[in-house]
Amino acid sequence: MFPSMADAAGRTLGDEEIAAVTRVLRSGMLSSVWGTEVRALEREVADLHGVAYAVAASSGTAALHLAVAAAAPDPGDEIITSPISDFGTVAPILAQNAVPVFADVDPFTGNLDVDAVARAIGPRTRAILAVHLFGAPAPVAELRELADRHGLLLIEDCAQAWLTKLPNGRLAGTAGSIGCLSLQQWKHITCGDGGLTLTDDADLARRMRLFADKGWPRDVGRHHVSFGLNYRMTELAGAVARAQLAKLPKVLADRRRTARRLLDALRDLPVRVPPADVDSHAWWLFPLVLPDGGAPEAAAKLQAAGIPARAGYLQEGLHCAPALTEAPIYGGSRFPLTSPPADREPRYGRGACPVAERMIDETLIVIDWNENYTDDHVDAIADAIRGVFR
C-alpha cells in the first residue's frame, strides 16, 4: 500500500496539530477577525517567502479570487491562463465577469509557453495567471517581462508549488504581482481547506484583505468601502496551518529525496521528467512524459501493477470543459464569454490548445507522490515502470 494524502499514513498531522486546535478551542475565539492565529500564519508565510504581505483566505480558490479581484478587470476583460490546471484557476476569472483565455503549454513541463502567451495578448487583456504545474517552476521571469511590457499583472498559482525554487533562487509566488497558495487536503501541507496570497504591493494587499472581508476595513466602524465576499480563514484552520508550516521543509526534503531516487532509476528509459533540477521542483505529483505517446496504455499497466498512476491528469483541458464550451455562467446567460474576433484563434474546444490536448490524450502520466514514501515504495514504482518499457 502506498501512503496517500487521503489518509493519516500519507499526512504529517500529529500531536502538534492537536495541540494547536486545543489551544484555539480553549481560547474561545474561533474567528480570525479578533483572533491571533491567522494573523501569525500570514506573517510566517510572508517571512518564509521574503515578501511584505500575506493575506489568508478560506481556500486556494478563494485566494485566487482575491488576486483576480485585486487585478480589477472590467466586465469582459481577458485573463490569460493555462489549460492544464484545476478549475479553481478559472472559476475566479468568471466570478469577476472576466474572460479566461487559454494559451498553450510547453510539451514537457505542461507549464505556459511564453510565445503562446504573447500571441494570446489582446487589447482587453488584463492579467496573466501562470500555474506552476505539479510543482515545476513556470517561466515566470519571462512572463513577468512580457507582463511588464504590456502593462499587465502577473498572478502565480502556486497551489501545487510550496517551496518551488525559481532560477534566481527565490520561491514561486514572488516573481509576479501576486502569488497564491493552497492548504487543501491534497496539498503539501493542509488545514483541510485554506489559502494565502503573497504580494509586496501594499495597495494590492489592501484590496485583497477588503475583498476577503466584505469590503470592511474594520478600523472605521461598520463601514463597507468596496464590494467583497466572506473568504475569511478560521482560527482553527490557521492554527493547524501554522503547525503544518513548521513541517514543510522536511515534507519537501523527503519528496525531493525519493524523487531523485526514482529519477536515477529511470535514466535509461524513453521517458522525460522535467525539470532536471530535482531541488527546484516541489513534486506534488511525479510526472512522466512519453514523447512518442502511449500514455493511456502505459498508465493502465502501472495501475494493474498497483501503482497510483493515471494518464493525462485531466479528463480534458480546461478549454474543453463543458462549463466553458456549453454551460450557462449566470442564470441562462453565457456572459461574460464572447466569441473572439475572426482573426484570433478559437477560444474554447478541441484545437484551441493542441499541445495541451496531446499531453492529456497521449503523452502525460502522473504518479501520486508523498513525503512518506520509503525507498521500497520508490523501488516498486521504478520496477513497474521498467516492466512497462521492457
Automatic annotation (TrEMBL):
Q: Name one GO molecular function term.
A: transaminase activity
Write down the CDD domains for this protein, in alphabetical order: AHBA_syn
What keywords would UniProt list here?
Aminotransferase, Pyridoxal phosphate, Transferase
UniProt xrefs under Gene3D superfamilies: Aspartate Aminotransferase, domain 1, Type I PLP-dependent aspartate aminotransferase-like (Major domain)
Cofactor(s) this protein requires: pyridoxal 5'-phosphate
Q: Which family does it belong to?
A: Belongs to the DegT/DnrJ/EryC1 family.
This protein is called DegT/DnrJ/EryC1/StrS family aminotransferase
| Organism encoding this protein | Hamadaea flava
Its lineage opens with:
Bacteria, Bacillati, Actinomycetota, Actinomycetes, Micromonosporales
